[in-house]
Amino acid sequence: MGSHWNNEHILREEIFSIERLEQHAQSLAAAQTITRQPGFRRSLGSRLRNNEKVLLAAYRSIARAVDEGRAITPAAEWVLDNYHVVEEQIREIREDLPAGFYRQLPKLAEGPFAGFPRVFGIAWAFVAHTDSRFDPEFLRRFVGAYQSVAPLTIGELWAVAITLRIVLVENLRRVAQRIVTSRAARQEADLVADRLLGVGGHAPNANALADWKRRSGKLTPAFAVQLVQRLRDQDPKFTTALIWLDRELRALGLDTDRVNNRVGARTNLKGLIE
Fold it and tell me: Which residues pair with 117 in a beta bridge?
């Protein structure tokens, strides 16, 4: 499969105006080719099942954090409060897209979604270029613009809503994974800070950051933000650690202010499933 499917990046491309969205739909329709080759298809069912497992694991992880009295982000709180809605949507997808009907949908012949239904590629593009914000009028015009170049079958039109849900669940899975991994990174940063500062039952250890670099060394935005927040306004002797963090972030094309904004921003979860 293509890189679109194999990575865990949140589905978020350049946000288009309605006019640009229509242009993109027409370009997409002109570029996509379908195949009638028997057996040339890939199932979305297995990915949906995997997404369900990942979302459940994320929900349980967030719930444990709450039970332990730990603070959670607004995005994590959304997942916790709305997990039952997600479960319901996944059940409805299974009921509304039976295997027999799925087999009849025209499949893409090439590209990152080769073997998947053409309508799935359409839904993916719509979600990516609207930042998961569902607007019925935008969707109507997007599909209409697509059909002005390549008409869809009645079955595909009926499947637009279902495949849109599938893509939104896929995106939510990626958001949930990021929430869990970021929380783990912040906990790791807290442990390093505790050891540097000599708090939380730890003796002061000036080599705590160096020890972490040797043991792990993978700097993530969430880890960096948490450590900067813990060390900022502390004893000047920790300036060296802050300088190192700043240098490493700049090597990744980031800085502490941008990372703070990036990690602190609330992901557009509301509307993903509703």
Answer: 107
Is the torsion defined by CA of 31, 37, 38, 42 positive or negative? negative
Is residue 115 within 8 A of residue 107, CB to CB? The reply is yes
For residue 76, which of 179, 209, 213 has the smallest C-alpha distance? 179
Give dist(CA 225, CA 268) in Å, integer.
Answer: 21
Q: How far apart are CA 169 and CA 163, in angstroms?
A: 10
pLDDT at 260 > cutoff 50: yes
pLDDT at 256: 60
Q: Within 10 A of 113 (CB to CB), how many other CB atoms are there?
A: 21
Buried b (16+ CB within 10 A) or exposed e, 46-83: ebbeebbebbeebbebbeebeeeeeebbebbbbbbebb
Tell me: the pLDDT tens digits for 225-252?
Answer: 888 888 887 777 777 888 888 887 787 7
Domains defined for the chain, CATH in brackets:
3-178 (3.90.1200), 182-264 (no CATH)
Q: Confidence class of residue 112 from pLDDT cuts 50, 70 and 90?
A: confident
Instruction: Give the predicted TM-score (pTM) of the model.
Output: 0.82
* Rounded Cα–Cα distance for residues 175 and 75 (Å): 8
